[in-house]
Write a structure and sequence with these properties.
Radius of gyration: 25 Å
Strand content: 25-35%
Number of strands: 44
Strand order of the largest sheet: 37-38-40-39-41-42-43-44
Structural class: alpha+beta
Shape: globular
Distance between the termini: 32 Å
Number of helices: 12
Largest sheet: 8 strands, mixed
Helix content: 10-25%
Length: 699
């Protein structure tokens, strides 16, 4: 195979083979239509808007960005760049849209220009706006579209009559935008919500002035002014977030709650069967309240209160309301995250709820049973037993409306995802994927390893001959909220390519990862280092005991973000086990990471200073005795480059040799094609040199 067709090149060009896949589904309330996004080919980053007609069983293109905005390059506003970074968006074109409940209209922006598409006729209009638009959303009646521009909230008619409902007070005060914490950690990417009748909006006001200012600079261009960002580091001030109801006819009313006790605005809902409700959370994340608000007076009453001695986990999709007005929520009890309807548990112990997909006559949700490597779709009513809707091993998700359910499935049978449209439980069609084939089939063995039965995947080089020792590469993430070991083929494409370079690759999910019960999930409370590292060592030794070809004298570890933290931690604290590490964008000092994530696990640094010190890597710098490669994007505003630079300085002051690879202009995602390709190649070269690949024995 020619180098130009190498796996690293194809993976980078296709954004890890995700281009061309259908995604971001919406289903009309009556089940007549399904809207979705998809690029026209597996190597085409320009995403288009499509509609699938359920009755006809056919799909049609609604909006193509190359026709609507044929400029050679997208011009993204700072708000749009930030949203894409928070959403980990690597494609271009129409990467997000919003629609009315009937799925008659959809709105989106291209380079700041607002577009409104009629999903029934295919007609696309561009109502004029006085400035660049962001996050446009049609009203439920379809008469108007709201959007944000430079931190102000506007409403425009289809004919172009524009009105500002909430004006900018200060450049650091925004209306209708999700603040950093909401977008990065709460999965809330929006900051305003239409009323069911389309005559008013609930609008979040975020005062970012209390938040400290950090500066992101590009050393490769000394003439460029540094970018200032408001970053809420652990132990420091957050944005002051409040909620208002703005009337189209004019006037605003503040929604009242105890914002000192509950400063985090986690979620807002407002719909036909949903009262204006807000889920608010305490700073220590041990308490939250679901409040119902009177949109006229702004008064609130508590509908639900919960507390937990460690933290309350945000479940996507809740709160939700069934068609008859009953509240759908979740509760942790008996080591299980259970679904509740009006306070009564409707899922059994041992079925771990992950997300609420839809609430209507019943509730559709995703959950895992005993095997956390599988995620299935389930459906239940308040009075009935939960029914599993998917059979094939793998990971399944969905979107619903009316009697239509769109099922998105991935498994070990194919590197691609399958999208099936069901009506009343029966398949009525499929939505095609244009994703490229990776030309690489992972050969994965998933086992329960060690005394904690850690979900662990082992990948060997294709064509490996038993009896030949293999250096070992651990390839984890292993942090809270995220699993690597799932019965999905494309989760292991990169790991298999690494194995084919001459390694036995091991991927293990330890304590803190989801799907195995709340005790397992919360075992990392007040200690992000010890459980994560112990579990990687345990998985390595258990798998090596069953597979004697794994050479424990040559063991390396690589990771990104939390995985980068874990990789550096491994060679610093367990050089007897790990002989080399690659740490990409690592958190090295948790005082430099954000409030909502860090304080959830480690508490407030003023109260738990010693816990923060033990979780930091900086005091361990003098113990480095193994090769360590640090990689960091200098434009990263999530895990800022200061993490790597401070560790590098500590290593230098301790006289410990190490390697630093700075990536100019690169953020936390590394979406640039050439960067993504060559990063893989350079990492393999480092590992081969550090482990003396081809030379069995001690490293």
């Amino acid at each position: 195979m020619r180098q130009t067709d190498s796996f690293p090149r194809r993976s980078a060009r296709t954004r890890r083979f995700t281009l061309g896949r259908p995604r971001s589904f919406s289903v009309a309330a009556d089940g007549s239509r399904v809207a979705f996004l998809r690029s026209p080919a597996g190597d085409d980053p320009m995403t288009c808007l499509w509609v699938f007609d359920v009755d006809a069983g056919s799909e049609r293109l609604v909006a193509d960005p190359r026709i609507l905005a044929p400029a050679s390059e997208e011009e993204l506003s700072p708000d749009e760049r930030a949203r894409r970074e928070r959403a980990r968006e690597t494609a271009g074109g129409i990467v997000a849209y919003a629609a009315d409940p009937g799925l008659r209209l959809a709105s989106f922006t291209l380079s700041g220009t607002l577009f409104v598409a009629d999903l029934t006729t295919g007609e696309v209009q561009a109502p004029p706006t006085p400035s660049a638009a962001f996050d446009p959303r049609p009203s439920p009646t379809g008469e108007r579209v709201a959007y944000v521009s430079d931190g102000t909230l506007h409403v425009v008619t289809r004919e172009g009559e524009d009105r500002c409902l909430a004006e900018e007070e200060d450049p650091d005060v925004t209306w209708g935008l999700a603040e950093f914490i909401a977008a990065e950690e709460m999965d809330r990417l929006r900051g305003y919500w239409w009323s069911p009748n389309g005559r008013s909006l609930a609008v979040a006001r975020a005062d970012n002035r209390p938040v400290g200012i950090w500066y992101i600079t590009d050393p490769s261009d000394p003439a460029r002014e540094p970018q200032s960002v408001r970053y809420p580091a652990a132990g420091t001030a957050n944005a002051d977030v409040s909620l208002f109801v703005a009337q189209l006819e004019g006037g605003r009313r503040e929604v009242e709650w105890d914002r000192e006790a509950y400063p985090y605005l986690v979620q807002v809902t407002w719909g036909e069967s949903e009262p204006l409700s807000l889920l608010v959370q305490s700073r220590d994340q041990r308490r939250w309240a679901l409040l119902e608000a009177d949109p006229v007076t702004g008064a609130t009453r508590s509908r639900l209160d919960q507390s937990d001695p460690m933290w309350l986990e945000i479940v996507p999709g809740i709160p939700a309301w069934m068609g008859d007005g009953r509240l759908v929520f979740a509760r942790d009890e008996d080591d299980t995250r259970r679904l509740t309807v009006d306070g009564d548990a409707v899922t059994p112990v041992g079925l771990h709820v992950r997300r609420v997909v839809h609430a209507g006559e019943g509730v559709v949700f995703t959950a895992s049973e005993e095997d956390a490597t599988e995620v299935h779709l389930w459906q239940t009513s308040a009075d009935g037993k939960p029914e599993r809707l998917t059979d094939a091993p793998g990971v399944h998700d969905g979107v619903a409306g009316g009697d239509v359910l769109v099922v998105n499935s991935a498994g070990m049978h194919s590197p691609d995802q399958l999208t099936e449209v069901r009506r009343a439980g029966k398949k009525v069609g499929s939505i095609r994927s244009f994703a490229e084939s990776p030309g690489l089939e992972p050969r994965v063995t998933i086992v329960r390893a060690g005394r904690r039965e850690l979900n662990t995947a082992l990948l060997l080089p294709r064509g490996h001959s038993p009896g030949r020792p293999l250096p070992v590469l651990l390839d984890p993430y292993a942090g809270p909220h995220f699993q690597r070991v799932l019965r999905v083929q494309d989760a292991f494409l990169q790991s298999q390519w690494l194995a084919d370079q001459g390694f036995a690759v091991l991927v293990a999910d330890g304590r803190g990862t989801p799907g195995r019960g709340t005790t397992w999930e919360k075992a990392v409370h007040l200690d992000l280092a010890t459980p994560a590292l112990e579990d990687q060592v345990d998985a390595l030794h258990a798998v090596a005991e069953a597979n004697p070809d794994l050479d424990l004298g040559r063991v390396a570890i690589r990771g990104w973000s939390f995985g980068g933290y874990l990789a550096a931690l491994a060679v610093l604290r367990r050089p007897d086990v790990f002989h080399a590490a690659i740490a990409g964008a690592p958190v090295t000092d948790w005082r430099l990471y954000d409030t909502h994530y860090t304080e959830r696990y480690l508490g407030h640094p003023q109260e738990n200073g010693e816990i923060y010190r033990r979780s930091s890597l900086l005091d361990d710098a003098a113990s480095l005795s193994r090769p360590l490669l640090l990689i960091h994007g200098l434009a990263d505003d999530n895990v800022v480059a200061a993490h790597t630079l401070r560790l590098s300085r500590a290593l230098l002051e301790a006289g410990r040799p190490h390697t630093v690879l700075p990536l100019s202009g690169v953020t936390h995602m590394t979406p640039q094609e050439v960067v993504a390709e060559n990063l893989l190649v350079l990492q393999v070269a480092f590992l081969k040199d550090a482990l003396r690949l081809g030379e069995p024995g001690d490293a």
